[in-house]
Amino acid sequence: MISHWLAPDLTMSAPDYRALLGAALSFKRRYPLHTEGALRDKTIYFIFYNASLRTRSSFQTGLARLGGNAIVLDPHAGIYTPALPDAEIPYTTERVADVARVLSSYGDALAIRMYGEPAGWVYGAAHRHLEAFAESSRVPVINMECDRFHPCQALADVMTLREQLGVLTGRRLCISWAYSGSWHKPVAVPQSLLLAAVKTGMDVTLAHPSSFALDPQVMSAAAQFAEQTGASLRVTHDLRDGVADAHAVYAKSWCSLDHLPRHRGETVDETAMRDAFERHRDWCIDADLMRLAVPNAGYLHCLPVDRGQEVSDAVVEGPSSWVFAQAANRLHAQNAVMAHLLNPGCLA
């Protein structure tokens, strides 16, 4: 059976996820001198429907350092755009199933990033796109972020938390919505982080205005994982309450699922979406708010960050910022993911 990396935050058991976290940290300590050749002659095809800095550069750098080959295919130019049957356009698109069959006969894995506009902002449509790739691929498919999950980011996040806080059991994490001048941000990061954090035993407070609730399936799964690991999960609609006594604060913006279209061809209710954002311009992390957390608490963000909106410059550039250590761990998390899928023996 082919092992994919589509929604491991949702589907991987808590013990298996913690084992992978430990393996990723160990692999990082051996990088690069003792990991050279781990993916020698392995080829991965990368398809980015969305812009990318950290994901693209860290995957390509890591794969090259491990001895593999990265081939980036632009779905908007240079190849026919892979599409599902209901979105096919003659001589413009090519069915996802056909693309997956062909590429998986050439290389060792496919990696895809797709969310938002390329899927018409229909919640779950981008994830279904990745699932269609996986159904027809003979090699692993890696989710580099979709509209539901960002498992590569989440693994880097918990690696950073482990390095900064040590044992994570009982540590308090605030995952908070934050204001941005743009609503065009999926819920993938907070959803994957929430699931990953409770699997490690962290006590999580999810803070957001009432109109920015996460996917009920994700919330239900998080509660189940928390029960298994002894973690706690609570929701608050008060930012200060969320930050209070936290060991780490992860505050970023995400869109409201309430105002996204439910079917292809429908449009985002942009007026309602913007109104929901503008009502909560005060949801910004600054130095005063960080003082509500425990001494030496850290601030995290997946980047790119909207400075002066989601968070103040003083926090991003200050001693409480773990943002750039977190970004550096994208390389190591993804190295571990690629090794886990293509050469698991080298993680031991």
Explain briefly what this protein structure is.
This is Aspartate/ornithine carbamoyltransferase, Asp/Orn-binding region. One of its GO terms (molecular function) is amino acid binding. The chain is built from 13 helices and 11 strands.
What does this structure look like?
By secondary structure, the chain is of the alpha/beta class. It has two domains: 8-149 and 330-346, Rossmann fold, CATH 3.40.50.1370; 153-327, 3-Layer(aba) Sandwich (Rossmann fold). Helices cover 40% and strands 14% of the residues. A five-stranded parallel sheet has the order 9-8-7-10-11. A four-stranded parallel sheet has the order 2-1-5-6, sandwiched between helices. Strand 5, helix 5 and strand 6 (141-143) form a beta-alpha-beta unit. The chain is globular. The two termini are 21 Å apart. The model has no long low-confidence stretch (mean pLDDT 97).
